[in-house]
Amino acid sequence: MSKNYYIIPIFVPHEGCPHNCVFCNQDRITGVDDEEVTASSVITTINDYLETIKNKNATIEISFFGGTFTGIREEKQRELLKVAKEFKEKGLIDKIRLSTRPDYINDHILTYLKEYGVDIIELGVQSLNEEVLKKAGRGHSVHDVIDASKLIKEYKFILGHQIMPGLPGDTFERDIETTKESIKMNPDICRIYPSLVIKDTPMERMYINNEYIPYSLEEAVNVSKVMYDMYKKHNINVIRIGLQPTESINEGKDIVAGPFHPSFRELVEGSLLSDIILENMAEEKKGVLYINSRDLSKLYANKKTYFSKLKDNGKVIDVKQDDNIERGHIKLCLENRKLDIAY
């Protein structure tokens, strides 16, 4: 996220969601309690955040996360959205975002969300495989996702998809198929959250009973980098890869098992970058690689594991820092050609 872009998170934890998905414990994931969110508390939260933002040119967004926003009472939705809209109309914030389930979207809901100035709607898609959705206890179908995505686009909202590779019943192939089907719906943005086993969830019991094995870190990186690359090639902005650390998660209190890493996105981008360099070098053995200094951590991610793969494949790379290179790009100079590559 740009230093000129600020998100004010408003957590509406688990309120409105009648389902108990196997992976879900919103209290632990969000790091907040099930305390009711009111207009007054939202105003306080927004004002507290605004006081910390000194950049006059910043883009500021209010985001309603944690739970199923359009599943809570319509009266409560309107109460909270009214606050956000008032801040937007005063020019104090620029965008309003919310997340919800695919089966809690219809014409009536989208009409009033538009009235309150909502800009971005993220759907908890998780998977586009019917068997996986059933095992995850989602309570909705693939067609619900297709219908909701189509409606959201028709109403001119920004559409987001949240995908969870590695759920019970998932395979690498199923995760890639989910990505293909998601791309067909043309979301504007996407989040990739490899499945983690959180304490006090049905999935924890499945894990303890040997009914579920989460992806290893390497497996999660491998599937996530393919998904990320697919979305990127279709100009879909992947805004997050991996669950955002909270204080409790950082301390290891709530993750029972699974591919958690505080810099998971960096691992994904580093592994993908290594693959791209290998592919472009083909039979050539030596090259000079120019990279922005702020992207060096990606090249050397995971204790240089991915960079070492280049050496293991007989490649000799002379790395040079050049801050004129756009971030997310490299310049690869080989014996008879120079390549500008985005990754």
From TrEMBL:
Recorded GO MF terms: 4 iron, 4 sulfur cluster binding; catalytic activity; metal ion binding
Pfam families on file: Radical_SAM, Radical_SAM_C
Keywords recorded for this protein, A-Z: 4Fe-4S, Iron, Iron-sulfur, Metal-binding, S-adenosyl-L-methionine
Superkingdom field: Bacteria
PROSITE patterns with a match to the protein in the record: RADICAL_SAM (PS51918)
SMART domains, per database record: Elp3 (SM00729)
Annotated ranges, domain Radical SAM core: 1-237
GO biological process, one term: tRNA wobble base 5-methoxycarbonylmethyl-2-thiouridinylation
Cofactor(s) required, per the database record: [4Fe-4S] cluster
GO cellular component: cytoplasm
SUPFAM superfamilies: Radical SAM enzymes
UniProt key word Iron-sulfur: yes
InterPro entries to which the protein is assigned, alphabetical: ELP3, Elp3/MiaA/NifB-like_rSAM, Radical_SAM_C, rSAM, rSAM_horseshoe, rSAM_sf
Signal peptide extent: none
The protein's name: Radical SAM protein
